[in-house]
Amino acid sequence: MAAAQGRLSDGAGGMDDAKGAEAEARHKGSHNGSTPPAFAAAVEALRAARLRPQIEVEATRAPQRLAPHAYALEAAVVDGDEELADGRLVLLHDPAGHEAWHGTFRLVTLVRAELEPEMAADPLLPDVCWSWLTGALQTRGLTYGEPSGTVTRASSHYFGGLSARPSASQIEIRASWTPREGLGGVPDTAAHLSSWCDLLAQVAGLPPAAPGDASIVTLPQRRGPQSR
Fold first, then answer.
1. Which stretches does UniProt call biased (Basic and acidic residues) (predicted)?
2. Which residue, 8, 82, 84, 158, is the most exposed by fewest CB within 10 angstroms?
3. Residues 22, 74: Cα–Cα separation, whole Å
4. Which distant-in-sequence residues (6+ apart) come within 8 Å of 53 by Cβ?
């Protein structure tokens, strides 16, 4: 599974270079002494979450400089041998709290997928994509605060020796939010992961997981998905 590369924001105005951070981070995510019980419980819930079979999820190295403790996952939406969308989800934890987060936990995400050029040209696409993120959280009844992010469209056109390649368009969603902390100060990270996977599935053009749910609108299947 190809990792979703890019820069991740902690939602507080700071940016972190994913490649540099991942080269330094430890696989288990925590990098500042002993692991707080609340963070350990939140990570264990992520590992135990049951997700729809079309989405492959695995742990990856977490960025170090965004918070005292971090854990990261990467995921891909797979249809046979074709990869339709991918992304990264990072759980951040600062036991002392973070003024910009208004809490001690923060979730940071990067989601991307290929689009038909006609769909990419839709002026309403960024608003729709952002509503998919907030809608996925609300559908599962999750409470969250301080959401922030960007939706970016990019198009590539090929010339000269590459002119035989068709034009390509991509949508990229970068976002962060503060999950509500429950018993013991632990957020329901499994439910947040499921909501994030719902977003991935929508961006990939998969039908809703729940039969008969006509309220969810997905992107149409893209031309020439990425081969694995």
1. 16-27
2. 158
3. 12
4. none
Q: At a CB cut-off of 8 Å and minimum separation 6, what does 164 contact?
A: 158
Q: Where are the alpha helices (DSSP H) in the chain?
A: 18-24, 37-48, 117-120, 125-139, 189-204
Could you give the angle at the alpha carbon of 226 between the alpha carbons of 223 and 203, nearest 5°? 70
Instruction: For the beta carbon of residue 172, count every other beta carbon within 10 angstroms.
Output: 18
Give the distance between the most distant pair of CA atoms in the chain. 60
Q: Where are the beta strands (DSSP E) in the chain?
A: 7-9, 15-17, 55-60, 69-79, 82-98, 103-115, 144-156, 168-179, 226-227
- Which pLDDT tens digit goes with each residue over 140-169? 999 999 999 999 988 888 898 888 888 788
CA angle 58, 84, 23 (to 5 degrees): 40
Side chain identity at residue 188, one-letter code? D
179 CB-near residues (< 8 Å, 6+ apart)? 103, 105, 106, 107, 142, 143, 144, 187, 188, 189, 192
